Amino acid sequence: MSSRVLADIRHYQNAAGQGAVVTAHSRSNLITPEWFEPRHWGESAERIRTGGRGGAYVVHTPIGPLLLRRYLRGGMVGPVLKDRYFFQGGNRTRSFSEFFLTADLFEKGAPVPEPIAATYWRSGKFYRAAILLQFLRDIRTFGSLMVNQGAKAPWADTGRLIAKAHRHGLDHADLNAHNIVFNARGQGWLIDFDRSHVRIPETAWRENNLQRLKRSVLKIQSEHSSQLDASVALQGFEQLEDAYCQAWARGV
């Protein structure tokens, strides 16, 4: 937990079990556990069906629209455990870890959405979790921009964006083309920091991030080969790496 982050943690108990909510200090008396339940918002909760595992919603709250994301399991255990994780302490929950990491990065000026609040609720050995984040309006993923714009996609801007995030120490656990987004004005963000870390910038993990992104780019290209030629994707990624290296050398 970063000392830079002013946050308030409140514990509670309800029908779902024992839990806690962490919020930015300025919103400590406003956000309740019910805010993390899509059904609390009724028909105004809009499910986001692109990307991820289906646990994200836009909810319209008294402080404006927010992104509500429930943590869902993937891989072989997904169908069995679904949204349950082994409890090892409140600050080690997926939601609290991501909240404090994102809050620290946001306060440092990294290109990340503002975290609003996070929660977990515990039942026995397991817990479930959710996080509320700034809702980024009218955005498109870098993956979709690649497919639709080809060589004109923001390859170089993406490289510079990643360099800036790396300069702040963000080691993204899943840096893929769907976790980089841009709005119509060209402003970009990295998103989804579950299992990510803030580290001292080192060549090894920075290169691992870029190689993961390259695999994502090539996978998307193979899935949309009729729209995006392999040579365009490879040349685009070279532009991305060149822009990254130049930005890194400037100390961005």
Secondary structure elements and pairings:
Layout: E1 7-14, E2 17-24, E3 46-48, E4 56-61, E5 64-70, H1 78-81, E6 85-86, H2 94-108, E7 115-123, E8 126-134, E9 139-141, H3 142-149, H4 155-167, E10 170-171, E11 180-183, E12 188-190, E13 197-198, H5 203-223, H6 230-250
Antiparallel strand pairs: 1-2, 2-7, 3-4, 4-5, 5-8, 6-8, 7-8, 9-11, 10-13, 11-12
Helix pairs in contact: 4-6, 5-6
Please explain how this structure is put together.
The protein has 252 residues and is of the alpha+beta class. Helices cover 33% and strands 26% of the residues. The strands form 3 sheets. Strands 1, 2, 3, 4, 5, 6, 7 and 8 form an 8-stranded antiparallel β-sheet that branches. Strand 3 and strand 4 form a beta hairpin. Helix 4 packs parallel to helix 6 and helix 5 runs antiparallel to helix 6. The radius of gyration is 19 Å and the shape is globular. The mean pLDDT is 92.
Which structural category fits the helices and strands? alpha+beta
Mean pLDDT: 92
Total helix count? 6
List SSEs in N-to-C order: EEEEEHEHEEEHHEEEEHH
How many strands, which pairing sense, and closed or not: the largest β-sheet?
Answer: 8 strands, antiparallel
Strand content: 25-35%
Oligomer: single chain
Q: Overall 3D geometry?
A: globular
- Approximately how much helix is present in the residues? 25-40%
Number of strands: 13
For the termini, the CA-CA separation is 25 Å
Rounded to the nearest angstrom, the radius of gyration is 19 Å
The parts where pLDDT drops under 50 for at least 5 residues are none
